[in-house]
Write a structure and sequence with these properties.
About 10% of the residues lie in helices and about 35% in strands. It is mostly beta strands and about 200 residues long. It has one domain. The chain is globular and about 45 Å long. About 40% of the residues are buried.
């Protein structure tokens, strides 16, 4: 039996949404319209100092592209999520996100960016831009090269494909629909959907 839908949240293109997920619930991030990067951050519901840590997740999984467990940062280093469903090519276990510096360098000052979107979404919880932690990048499709460089290809997802994470603690989560027009968004930003299931 499929997990029962409790809440559905629309994340419009170039925007972010914050929400809570209780321990034991399943969080789904859905690529509603096909390739579209999702930047996900999360905090322990009992202590916002404990947040999702992508580099520790990568360290524990030994991979930039796959993980079975998602960890919080040290010194806690606890499991925050279990990965229940993730099609190939949807994880980029690098903690970064697009930001104003990137767009300024590209000659596009003022362009929306995930750092600012995530920062704005956590403000109602008493947090700000300095509190934005590692990002779990979803629906990105990196290719690493032997010289240390990398590139992104279009994410190999179809409309409706999703990543499902089972919460191992109460969490505050924010998801942004990345405003970039890069290959992983297939040239233009799109909306995402978030589902919270029992």
């Amino acid at each position: 039996m499929a997990p029962r839908l409790l809440q559905s949240i629309d994340v419009p293109a170039c925007e972010a949404r914050a929400f809570t997920v209780d321990e034991g619930q399943q969080l789904r991030v859905v690529a509603v319209e096909g390739p579209q990067a999702a930047d996900l951050i999360a905090f322990s519901g009992s202590d916002y100092r404990e947040s999702l840590c992508t580099w520790l997740t990568r360290h524990m999984s030994g991979s930039f592209a796959t993980a079975e467990l998602v960890y919080t940062k040290l010194p806690a280093g606890r499991v925050m999520f279990e990965v229940e469903h993730a099609p190939p090519g949807v994880f980029w276990l690098s903690p970064g996100r697009c930001n104003r510096l990137k767009y300024e360098r590209l000659g596009r000052p003022g362009h929306p960016n995930c750092q600012d979107l995530l920062a704005a979404a956590i403000e109602p919880y008493g947090l700000d831009g300095f509190d934005v932690p590692d990002v779990l990048n979803l629906f990105m499709n990196p290719r690493l090269h032997t010289d240390g460089t990398y590139e992104f290809l279009a994410s190999p997802v179809a409309p409706g494909d999703y990543v499902a994470l089972r919460a191992r603690m109460d969490v505050l989560v924010v998801v942004s629909a990345c405003p970039d027009d890069a290959a992983y968004n297939n040239g233009y930003p799109k909306r995402l959907a978030v589902e919270i299931r029992a």
